[in-house]
Fold these 4 entries.
Entry 1:
Amino acid sequence: MDSGTAVATPATDERVARQSLLNKLLGRPEVGALTGAVVLFVFFSIVAEAFLEWNSLATVLYGSSTIGIMAVSVALLMIGGEFDLSAGVQVTTASLAAGMVSYQLSLNVWAGALISLLIMLAIGFVNGVLYVRTGLPSFIITLGMFLMLTGLNLGLTRVVTGNVATDPISELDGFATAQGFFSSDIEIAGVQFDVTIFWWLLFVAIASWVLMRTRAGNWIYAVGGSAPSARAVGVPVARTKIALFMGVSFTAWFLGMHLLFAFNTVQSGEGVGNELIYISAAVIGGCLLTGGYGTAIGAATGAFIFGMAEKGIIYAQWNPDWFLFFLGFMLLVATILNSWIRRRAEVAR
């Protein structure tokens, strides 16, 4: 006899529901950039015969590393919810400071580099403190710093050197060892790879470890997702933001030292506009403009895409005037693709 009692079907708890491998992959911020990098690599391998040569690979990786070193710290800052529009000219400021201090005071270049590091960390600290204390958008704070540093780089260099570039420092004490540290070559299979490539990979590894394995990484994601919520659960929002701005200044110093010791002298007007390239690399790599999302590996992949595009166009013997158009197109496509992937991953959960 039918009792009329319905048997309830237990609902699946979404917290323990298993996700498919595809959904897990789509949940990774860098998957769109990795896909784009593979497509771009195959494309230039077909249209440019020289692209697959070892020497070409070393050139592509070098170009990627000079973007990627900065893109790593810029990505962390963006994950934390902020921008730094002064990042490009900070690289030049670091080079100029080390070069002029070393030459004008006849110091060992390592002493000049250390003084430059302190100056750069102070700039990052000022950016962070101004943001925290004033409550103004980081866009405005760092735009102001960008303009001030651009003028300072040009004006102070001309006052000190009587020129628009620093004096050569190759004859100063410590130059050879500093050059070996910041700008030497490492031979692999008969091909010279610039040491910046390996520094870049190290910075990516450290940043990835910080983001995925440390409490500080949780803080970065938390303050980027919602600063008030993060503050409510005890996250040191102000200290985290200041540290992220100082991180950008540190990598600017490191890249600045590479440029100084690679070329022996630095033009004071360089670096303007590079901040947009660093931000674009991070965005192509999966970082959201709204913060709280992204990875260091994604930013590195975005930098690699830039490196491939810049050198691939040359190897394909195309007009390099189209480079910026191509990069703008890549930025739009990557942003749309990353947004679509993220929405699909959220629906699949």
Entry 2:
Amino acid sequence: MFTTDPFATLAGAVPPGFMKGFLILMALAVVVGTLVDILHKGSARYFFANFRNARTKKHSRRLGGGELAAIAVQTALVDVAASGEFCNPRRRLAHLLTMYGFVIYLVTTAMMVFGEHRAGLVPMLWWIGGLMVLVGGYWFWFFIRVDVSAEGNSPFRIVRADLFVLSLLASVTLGLLWAATGGGARVLFLLYLLANAVLFGSVFWSKFAHMFFKPAAAFDKRVSRADGTAENLPLQSRDDPEQQKRHSMELLQNAPMDMGLGIKREAPRHY
């Protein structure tokens, strides 16, 4: 079962080329949804304008091509590949499992549909990627997400922001269940297609497009710190004399760095 291409069982059950056409349609849905999202939110315009305006500020310095390349590599390795923005180790691990599992699952799905890898390593990787998504996704959903672990809400409380993770879990769960039946459960296959249509067709309304925006935001943040603009945010720590002068309360101007450690007696359970 784990080394057999589940899509091979569709021969004769669906028209030839159906799955290829479906995957192409889903890819186009992601592209269109992302472009519409960019136009609607003005994300690209914001990043370019922010980058251009930073060059005109008096306290900024121009970064050379080598520095920008180094920042791009650091962004790719730390913020993207290692999910460095997450301080919570459990949250980071769950995110990495889901992210890399989804990439493996998606790539091997395309390889089996277009390359006809009937048996061997590719179907096994498809299963591994899918199981990684389920472990990371369900772990996040029931135990880590902030409105459950920190705010005490029910894990079954659903809002629109949950559309991406729920449709992703539904897609992978139904896909693996369908494959586990040997591809014979047509109802599971139809539900699998429906879940994928929701996942890839709802980019404009879900968090799917965040995987394209977050690297750009991380790069912009690192550049703004390197050139000194820091998006008009203070770079100094609280023990820096210049930073202490910014406080309007006299008490905080001379407050020690270890003031208020009592709030750390209970470990925070949020992002």
Entry 3:
Amino acid sequence: MTKRMDLGGSFTLPGTSMTLNRMGYGAMQLAGPGVWGPPRDVDAAIAVLREAVAAGVNHIDTSDYYGPHVTNELIKEALHPYPDGLVIVTKLGARRGADGSWIPAFSCEELTAGVHDNLRSLGLERLDVVNLRVGGVTEPTEGPIEEPLTALAELKSQGLIRHIGLSNITPRQFEEAQKITEIVCIQNFYNVAHRTDDAFIDALAPQGVAYVPFFPLGGFTPLQSSVLDGLAASLQATPMQVALAWLLQRSPNILLIPGTSSLNHLRENLGAAALELPSATIAELNAIAKNAAPAARQAAH
């Protein structure tokens, strides 16, 4: 039997009764290569989902365009009927072409179809949280989001969505969104080496809005990776565990959704919640981002 774990404490999404353990699970990696098609081992994917929930994970990040349909259908097969308190967070803003391409999908018709696709593939009557994903692959781009967000707010008023979040957005877009509907979470690219959103996180915390970083090891230079590797070795931990522990200690409104298709990696990731980083280690990790800019300027010359 899987032992329930301390997953970094809990956080209640604003204006909701949804109290989430801070360490969650991201399902994207359960799809095949390129987030396309089924996994090589369906039974292993189902085992990962079941062990995550058994260990105490109570929020799972997914989307019907992962696969497409693959991760949602795996979640349904593994966990339906869903245990009380499990929050499934999905996202809209894209669809997949027949060649596996990612195609923006922001019209009212596409968003409505996306909600119904997610409801059907997950076996739900209402989606817990839907993130509207805008911007590029990792970096947000300024621009109005009123039209697609208004469409999502209408679907919320129809009872098809409980709560709305945003992904890959700027602080200005967040302010625009708050005039349209309540936003419970932000999902952006952020980690110990990529800290563009530092001020954004600090502004969200007193509002009680959750910040959910993706790519906890993305965008590292070789030098930054070597520093992280050295610190992890000194703590007898993995680099991923240290990166996740740093995020949990960075701000109490940060929730994590590390993804993996491996049971061993799942256990390692969840174990990061119990890793207390010494203040000296945190200072060295904070210096990773500070030292990156001068190194980049020197390399450019």
Entry 4:
Amino acid sequence: MTTVRADRLQRSPATSRATPADPADPTEKAGSADPAARTRRRRQRRRSQFTAWAFIAPLAAYLAAFYLYPLYRNLDLSLHHYTVRSFVDNNAPFSGWANYSQVLHDPTFWPAMRNTMVFTLVSILLQYAAGLALAVFFNRGFRLSGTLRALFLVPWLLPLIVSSSTWAWMLNSESGVVNYGLHLVGVAPVDWLTSPSWALTSVIIANIWIGIPFNLVILYSGLQNIPGELYEAASLDGAGTWQQFRRITFPLLRPVSAITLLLGLVYTLKVFDLIWIMTKGGPGDASSTLATWSYRFGFGSPLPQFGPGAAVGNILILIALVFGLLYIRVQRRQVG
């Protein structure tokens, strides 16, 4: 018996050393040692990667065809001296930054830049304010609120050519319904579309009317995600309507408000058809923006200037990119 026990004691250290502290799955050990199992796992990984790329490929092709290539083509146009002939045979001489220099030194540049900033900032701020007020109003819930919200979507659903033509008719100096209404209350008619003082204001009014439904929809969906218990607790604490809006509604809507303002900014920067149909950027350059000015370079003059027109378009892209990067930075700070 003593010999057997001693033999067991002598074997136990070797056994403990051979047994790991955290034993692995015997099937994994066998699989790792089996070349066929490793090959099967490698094939499964390749198959899953191929499936992932197959799902990404249509989106990548769409982005390349409709975003990357147009951006590349626009940059190429801005760095070459294109005429109608060289545009067809694709044999334009390289001009470097000459087109950008021409644009920046053109007397129309700063009026167009100022009009673009005024048109964009005033439009998005008033669209946001009106959309937020309507969203808070409809968030209370009442009879026919759904029907009224649907009616408010009409300006957003109409084609822009219809909305622009309607506003051009309404603001017509001689036969417009707006001047007729002013005449009824004893106010002198206004040359809305032909006066340098009122042309930009007219297109801003029309653009605000078109953009309010978009802000209403986005902000209303954001209000639906705010818990009603917060308002109940605030009312029990004696908070009034304005205090609830300032302390609860507006702070909790900041993420939704940020993306709404960014999308409105990008959309408003590139508005062309509304201004062109109503005023064509005139009279003179009174309502001309970078978008309409770029179109004039490329298509509006007797001899098209594709290079300067593309340069103006790239300036618009750069402005939108700057604001997009600012938005990303603000979002990171809020998350951090």
